[in-house]
Amino acid sequence: MLYCLANIATKLERLFMASNSKILKEHPEVGKLKGKKVVVTGGAGFIGSHLCEELVNLGADVTSIDDYSAGKERNLEFLKEAKNFRALKKDVTDQKDWEDIFGDADVVFHNAASKKNICLINPHRDLEVNAGGALNLMQQAMKYKVKKFVHASTGSVYGEPKVFPSNEEHPLVPVSYYGVSKLAGEKYVYAFHHLYGLNTTVLRYYHVYGTRQESNEFGGVVSIFLRNIIEGKPLTIFGDGTQQRSFTWVKDIVKANLLAAVTERSNGEAYNCASGIKVSIKELAENLVKMMKAPGVKIEYGDWLVGDVKYFDVDNSKIRDHLGLSFEKDFWGNMQKTIDEFLVYLEREKKLAAKTSKK
Q1: Residue 242 — pLDDT band, cuts 50, 70, 90?
Q2: Residue 254 to residues 30, 67, 120, 302, Cα–Cα distance (Å)
Q3: Catalytic residue chosen out of the listed positions 158, 177, 178, 206
Q4: pTM to 2 decimals?
Q5: SS3 string of 127-167?
Q6: 178 an active-site residue?
């Protein structure tokens, strides 16, 4: 592996510091969040931790909520010294003791979820978190008069696409337990908007990639492939590899959340949050092997996964028009950044594990 982790770590620390205000420079309107009391559920997770990071940088008063079933404390380690940040352990299905969290809250970013890979193992828990958790948080938001609720959903609510490109008017016919439970969560959000006038926005995420993504069997395909390559293990493609994904960089997901929170036009709307980039899983695997300079890593094929959608062609014009969001188009360039960051992240994991084992 032709990487010097020490040099990469130094470069990335400088990059993180320099990029702190990048979103603010591109979209000055997100500066409205400075001083606002905001809550991020799933804050210790992959996407949630990136959102917490940017909100802290913007000067918001940030509370992260996570039950740590999937989120990691180390994802928030670098924020612990920030005076405008706190992290609490709490399950979104817990119906008690929300006043300290939601009381006087300006914005709630609901990113806590039962992941897609878990739904087949425990569909009841999947429903409890994704639907019941959303209902519970909407009730708390109404009780404590939260001013804005941004709800993270998924493109899986559409099921197998029938119309291309697929926009927000596409029929909602999910073909996985995960898609069903996330759609139920969406419907609760819309019901509270319609019945009680709560200011809500739904963001339907597509194939998000970036650093801090879980790389075990419950993680995303990019992080799983990267870890396997580093460990010299084969990459397993389920199906023939022709299935396409609309990979979306985590920094764009963060921008979408922030813009949804400060844009009045987003009230009551649902948006496809996807880059529009189309990459097959086979192409992803082959290119990652080349980029990681690991020609000895094999690519293997397995059976299709139940409920796996094979083709995506996502229309993101609505979110670009309403929120002024532009998606990163240099997929492979951002993938190289992800690789560099991922290597540093793994190195930090090893050091943390070593410290823990000595105690």
Answers
A1: very high
A2: 11, 21, 28, 33
A3: 178
A4: 0.92
A5: HHHHHHHHHHHHHHHHHCCCCEEEEEEEHHHHCCCCCCCEC
A6: yes
